[in-house]
Amino acid sequence: MDAARRVTVLETDRLVLRPWRLDDAPALQQLASAKQVADGLVSLPHPYPEGGAAEWIASTVADDRPRFAIVRRDDGALVGSIGLAVEPEHRRAEVGYFVGVEHWGRGYATEALLALLAYGFGELGLNRIFAHHFLRNPASGRVLEKAGMRCEGTRRRHTLKDGEFLDSAVYALLRSEHEGAS
To answer: Following DSSP, what letter does each residue of 43-83 receive, concatenated?
Structure first.
C-alpha cells in the first residue's frame, strides 16, 4: 500500500512508532522470548527461535504492511510491536500488537493503538479496523476497549495454540465511530 510506505513515524506523548531496523533485533528477541508474550499471540512460538527477531525484521522490509516498532520517546527503548494487516479491497485491517512483559500496565499498548487507529482511518482511509484476543488474556481486551473498540462476540475454540483450542473475542471500530469520538 503506497500510504504505508510514505508514513515512516507515528508519534504520541510518550511513544514513537517507527519502522523496524535490524539493530532492533536483540531487544525484540528478548521481548518476544517471554512465555507470557507468546501465550497471547497466535503466531509467536515459544521458545522463540534464536535469530527469529532478525529474520522477522528483515521480512518487514520486504512487504508493504504498516508494522511499527513501539519505542519510548524519552530513551528510545523498545517496548513492543504494532501493525496492520490491510485488506484494501474491503477497506479494513486487522490490528496486532504486543508489549514486552516488563512494560505491562503502563498504558503503552493503548497509546500505540490509538495512534495506529488514527493512522488507519486517516492516512489509509480504512472503514473498519478489527482485532481479537484470547479470552485467557483479558488485559488485551481492556486495551481494545480503552481505544474505543467494541466487542462483537466470541469465536469459540477458534485457534489451536500449543495443543489447546482457545476462545477469542473479536473487537472492531468503524470509521464513523472513530470520527464520532474525535
So the answer is: S--SSPPTTHHHHHHHHHHHS---EEEEEETTT--EEEEEE
pLDDT at 132 over 70: yes
Q: What does the pLDDT look like over 43-98, one tens digit per residue?
A: 898 988 999 999 999 998 778 889 999 999 999 999 999 999 999 999 999 999 99
Helices and strands: H and E segment counts in the chain = 7, 8
pTM: 0.93
Domains of the chain: 2-181 (3.40.630.30)
For residues 124 and 3, what is the distance between their CA atoms, to the nearest angstrom?
6
List residues bridging with 172 in a β-sheet.
Answer: 130, 150
Task: Compute the distance between CA of residue 19 and CA of residue 7 in angstroms, rounded to an integer.
Answer: 9
- List C-alpha distances in Å: 86 to 109, 117, 176: 20, 12, 18
User: Which single residue is written with the C-alpha cell 515512516?
Assistant: 8
Q: Determine the Cα–Cα distance for residues 53 and 48; give it in Å rounded to an integer.
A: 9
